[in-house]
Specification:
The chain is an alpha/beta fold. The chain has 26 helices and 14 strands.
């Protein structure tokens, strides 16, 4: 190691780099259209953390004074005070703004945040039915999870490696290379895992650690190289912010830009031009010192304001929220973090911070299991529109009003063709007359159609796939329908925008749907192709619930949102109908819209169970609308 002062002497330029990192993250969240790649601020934080903490550990090991107890006590005093304040705030404010299911979810996320496993929880929740990320108050704690899981493993690895009396930096470099390689591999098939998995992200911390353990002052005394390194670092970070976008594969190889940029800036040292003149400036260091509480506060404030307003607020409000974030961060740093970190009686301060965060974790788990703040179901919201949210009641209703298909109706014998498909019908044992085929967006039409056609046997075949005759999951079903003398009409529906996103190079929605329609028409069936109901950007809970504390309930969105959705697939559906005389288009998309507004509710009833699936009320309404638009279905 180099001189001990490398890590115990304050470097204002690193605080300035922290300011850059947190400013990028806040800008990305508050003004995403402007700072498209601002999320790379987290990657900069990773490098800084790896450099500073690994350097301190390395120095302590070299001096034979490293203590695991002291290390983790320091981490507790550093992280727990501001984290505890944020978690407690979320539990209290959430009780006034969230409905029961939302508050239960918040409780689980509080516990995960306190236990530094938020990345694992978010990983488990990611997928088709994941709650909108913009409405998770503690979404940003995933990065703390990555960092602290790393620090559960890394000190022990360094300590054991040092027993062999070998330099520490080769271990850091080798682990960084292995983690980066794993990141590249996993990114090719599972982007969610690549983002949240500790072993695909720790290379970013290990790059900083390698620098700290190998040559933290490598450019000292070489000013020209230091100036060049800092300039290249700035260019890499700026290019990353401008060129990387949220819809691109990340981290993957793209994370090299911000991590190498941060590494070069740190390696350049405090005397490099950029570091001394820009990063070490007083405004930058002032923000850098409170960057951790800024990071903790900025996201929950934004999310809770979305809940309170329905998601609509302009730049002046966002700037005011940023100002509030800085005020809260400064107050947290001065009155909560500093007294616990630097006051007397370190043992008692560590114990107090640890017990407080542990207690919040237990409260969160209790709220997850029972709902409400401290007492069961104590939240401060009221029902504005009656109706079910989530799939439980929807599935119960369908199960109570349908019957399993028999062997003649549903060809289950060939498992290779039936796949994960399921089949239900409205009249037990009756030959099917009206068939619905598709994914979950066909399934949510079934209950309403069955109710609107009480004298007809309605059968629903659903799968996770698109209902194409070319899809092996549906091949045997189509053949069964074509051979059935009782089936007169077939309705095809799906989440068409999802299908478009999954098309491969050799696949085409217009061709596969046209082939399907032609096959059914040739078999003498009436063919109806339904477009999709609107996807809502606001959350369904904001439509069902309101409150007495200024909580807005929002059900309506401009019809332009629907039109933008239709643009992606509407021409394909229309072309299929035009090319296949006898096929008809069912415009379910506009059945929930009027006067340029689309709504998740009507007549005091909630119509959606999530942002894009109908509940029972919605299914009944759409089913009646379909029969009114196509009365021949009842013939």
């Amino acid at each position: 190691m180099t001189a001990r002062s490398s890590f115990h002497s304050y470097r204002p330029d690193i605080d300035g780099l922290r300011a850059v990192a947190v400013a990028l993250v806040v800008a990305y969240h508050y003004f995403p259209g402007t700072a498209r790649g601002g999320f790379i601020g987290v990657d900069i934080f990773f490098v800084i953390s790896g450099f500073l903490i690994a350097g301190l550990i390395g120095e302590a090991i070299a001096a034979d004074r490293f203590s695991f107890a002291d290390f983790y006590a320091r981490r507790a005093r550093r992280l727990f005070p501001a984290l505890g304040a944020t978690l407690g705030f979320c539990l209290i404010v959430g009780a006034f703004l969230l409905d029961d299911s939302e508050y239960r979810s918040l409780g689980l996320h509080v516990a995960a945040g306190a236990g530094f496993v938020s990345n694992l929880l978010l990983w488990s929740e990611a997928g088709y039915f994941d709650e909108a990320a913009g409405f998770k108050p503690l979404l940003h704690l995933w990065s703390l999870g990555i960092e602290e899981q790393f620090y559960l493993l890394w000190p022990a690895a360094l300590y054991l490696w040092a027993r062999f009396r070998r330099p520490l930096w080769p271990l850091a470099a080798a682990c960084a290379a292995a983690s980066f390689a794993l990141n590249l591999y996993v990114s090719t098939f599972d982007q969610v895992a690549d983002f949240y998995f500790i072993f695909t992200r720790i290379w970013e911390l290990l790059i900083g650690a390698t620098l700290a353990l190998a040559a933290p002052a490598a450019l000292k005394g070489r000013p020209r190289l230091a100036h060049l390194a800092s300039a290249v670092g700035v260019v890499l970070i700026a290019a990353s912010v401008l060129l990387i976008q949220g819809d691109q594969l990340f981290p993957g190889w793209r994370a090299l830009g911000p991590t190498l940029g941060a590494t070069l800036l740190i390696a350049a040292g405090p005397e490099a031009f950029v570091n001394a003149r820009l990063l070490a400036a007083r405004p930058m260091t002032a923000i850098g010192r409170i960057s951790y509480p800024i990071y903790l506060w900025h996201w929950p404030l934004l999310v809770f304001l979305r809940y309170a307003t329905g998601g609509e607020f302009g730049p002046p409000v966002r700037w005011a929220l940023i100002a509030l974030t800085i005020v809260l961060a400064q107050a947290t740093y001065r009155y909560i973090e500093r007294p616990i970190r630097f006051g007397a009686a370190r043992v008692s301060r560590t114990a107090f911070a640890s017990i407080a965060v542990s207690a919040l974790a237990l409260v969160g788990l209790r709220d997850f299991s029972a709902g409400g703040l401290f007492f069961p179901n104590v939240t401060f919201v009221r029902v504005v529109n009656e109706g079910d949210i989530g799939s439980r009641l929807f599935k119960s209703y369908v199960a109570a009003h349908s019957f399993s298909c028999d062997a003649k109706t549903f060809p289950t014998a060939d498992a290779s063709q039936s796949g994960d498909a399921s089949c239900i019908q409205s009249i037990a044992g009756a030959p099917p007359e009206v068939a619905i085929l598709g994914d979950s967006h066909a399934n949510h039409l079934y209950a309403g159609l069955a109710a609107a056609l009480p004298g007809r046997s309605v059968v629903s075949y659903t799968d996770q796939a698109v209902p194409s005759i070319d899809d092996p999951n549906f091949t045997s079903i189509y053949k069964t329908l074509a051979a059935s003398a009782s089936v007169r009409a077939v309705i095809i529906s799906a989440a068409w925008t999802v299908r478009l996103s999954h098309l491969r190079k050799n696949e085409n929605l217009r061709d596969e749907l046209g082939h399907t329609a032609a096959f059914l028409l040739a078999a003498g069936k009436r063919v109806y192709i339904a477009n999709d109901v609107p996807y809502f950007e606001s959350r369904v809970g904001r439509c069902k619930f309101g409150g007495g504390f200024g909580l807005a309930h929002r059900c309506d969105e401009d019809e332009l949102i629907l039109e933008r959705q239709l643009v992606s697939y509407g021409e394909d559906l229309a072309a299929v109908v035009a090319a296949n005389p006898g096929a008809r288009l069912l415009d379910t998309a506009h059945m929930l819209c009027s006067n340029t507004v689309c709504s998740m509710a009507a007549d005091g009833k909630l119509l959606y169970r999530d942002s894009n699936h109908l509940n029972i009320n919605g299914s009944l309404r759409i089913g009646a609308g379909i029969v009114a638009a196509a009365p021949d279905l009842a013939d």
